[in-house]
Amino acid sequence: MSILIQNARIITAEQDYKADIYIERETITAIGANLPMKADRTIDAAGKLAIPGGIDVHTHLDMPFGGTVSSDGFVTGTRAAAFGGTTTLVDFAIQSKGTKMREALDLWWKKAEGKACIDYGLHMIVTDLPDAHLEDMNDMVRSGVSSFKLFMAYPGVLMVDDATIFKAMRKTAENGGLICMHAENGSAIDVIVKKAVAEGKRAPIYHALTRPTTAEAEAVNRAIALAEMAGVPVYIVHLSSHDALQKVAEARDRGLLTYAETCPQYLFLSIEDLERPNFEGAKFVFTPPLREKWHQDKLWDGLKTNNLQVVSTDHCPFCFKEQKEMGRDDFTKIPNGGPGIENRLQLLFEGGVNKKRISLNRWVEITSTTPAKMFGLYPRKGSIAVGSHADIVIWDPNAEHVISVKTHHMRVDYSMFEGFKVKGNAESVLSRGEVIIDKGTWRGRAGRGQFLKRDAFAGAWR
Ligand code: URP
Ligand code: ZN
Ligand code: ZN
Known about the structure:
Blueprint (H helix, E strand, L loop, with lengths): L1 E10 L4 E9 L2 E6 L8 E4 L4 E4 L1 E6 L4 E2 L2 E2 L4 H10 L2 E9 L6 H12 L6 E7 L9 H8 L4 E5 L10 H14 L2 E5 L3 H13 L6 H5 L3 H18 L3 E3 L5 H12 L4 E5 L1 H5 L25 H12 L4 E2 L32 H11 L5 H15 L17 E11 L18 E11 L2 E5 L2 E2 L20
Parallel strand pairs: 1-4, 1-5, 6-9, 9-10, 10-11, 11-12, 12-13, 13-14, 14-15
Antiparallel strand pairs: 1-2, 2-3, 5-16, 7-8, 16-17, 17-18, 18-19
């Protein structure tokens, strides 16, 4: 199968130019003006942008959490991602305490096999690390699982202590992987939460009020210090506040290999959303929590100055009716997580490009190219270049769309961004040379997505 995309305005992290793109089977084999090739299919992209497929490096599909399981599995989650212009995910396998990481990897492969509609990689969540299992981390890197998430929050569930973090970091310094950190001081938060519950403060808003920004900043600072001692890069996930961002900026100013992502919810929503009546605030319960509105501008500034390098979604959907309801009388029982896998590119195009906060190139960089580089997928993914996978989105910059549960493809009964008007949307989506969305119509299939063995962290680029 060959495809010729004609008249495209190609946007990469570095370039903005008009050319045709020729694809043979899964790969881009030529780019140039007025390409003479005859193809099985021709797509006219006049008036549209051609961008590398989005890469979302933080998703939780089919994830057991908070006494339930996230409502999108690998079929619906990857399909919804594709509708939003994302062609690659990196999801999380979770090591159960006392077991080998390989068992978790096998389990997550089973969850994804025959289901994923787009390509996917996996990070490993490390929940305990006896010395006898340290070698597991090397095994993971060799298997293409070259990043590890550690939790400084959720005591008794996922949280690990500083000794475990430090051991994991030292091992990662040897094997070239990347440590991804959920940075919140879980022990201090636990004390605040217990007091709030005892005082009868049980509404969703208390989820945010019991997790102060200082608890995030302290943990970010500690993560950076431990990483510096271990001589390893660290990547802070779902960074939500100005205080935390300042710690990242200080570390980067000192020349440390400190990186961070934020998510659309922190750029567009605020703590006020947790006060919505009729328990609707539960729709916005995730960690770290939403912050006061003024933090949003600081995070946008972070994206402009490259103190934040990536925007992922932390997609972890739970239905309002059956799942968020579990915490109607007690916010600590609300499953933590929100849906967003489908809306990342739209929201960042609207809030970033249309509002002139970031350029088109920067939009591509933070949603595709840097995630690919950071997580060992570049140049296979994250660019439109000869030799790269033909993961290409034909983006209509003028398409107007209202985000709504009525039209989204995620398997969840609400949208965090209900009623948001965006201009700019994915029109057609190619994944490894296959048109999986054709002018808005689904042409993909479950199981066509492949597991991606990712390279080790590329090293000292900034
Ligand atoms: O609330 C969240 N973020 N749920 C997903 C798990 C995590 O911490 O990333
Ligand atoms: Zn987390
Ligand atoms: Zn997460």
